[in-house]
Amino acid sequence: MGKRKNTTATPVIQPDQLQLLTIPQVMATLNLGRTKIYDLINNDGLPIVKIGGATRVPLTKLQAWIDQQATQIGA
Description:
Elements: E1 20-21, H1 23-30, H2 34-44, E2 49-51, E3 54-58, H3 59-74
Antiparallel strand pairs: 1-3, 2-3
């Protein structure tokens, strides 16, 4: 008898489905430098997720944060 093969497929995330951004990706998205991004994280509530030593920014929360900032400016 042979070993049973695992038939559960592991989902592959395509680049266009990326949900967590690295700090360099956030820098490029907001056209800001590293120091400013960490300033926004520490002082202005830019949302992050820590995974071990890695800092990531959830894309949907980044979009909501940007909308919130735009609303505050327009208020």
